Structure prediction request, 94 residues.
Amino acid sequence: MKGKTKIDTDYLSVLSNLKITPKEAKKLQSDLQKTIDFIRNLQQLPSNSKKSKEKAKNNFFQDDEENPLCFTYKDLEKNSRKFRNGVFVVEKII
Prediction:
């Protein structure tokens, strides 16, 4: 099910508030196309096993319940390069 997906890098630039050069736009389109192709490939994999169905179960919880899947801020700080005021600090990646 591979096929080209139209990726509007100008629109992505506006949404992300990043200035993207034509060279960066071309690389971004290529990278995003690879990601889309990878996801399409994943969608083709069989997922009939009991284990995969258990992982896909409803993982919602009530507001007053503790989220067993959630990391603490200490966990996040410990495992990140830059973490400040409760958020990740990242460099421009394009």
Notes: Helices lie at 9-16, 22-43, 50-55, 73-78.
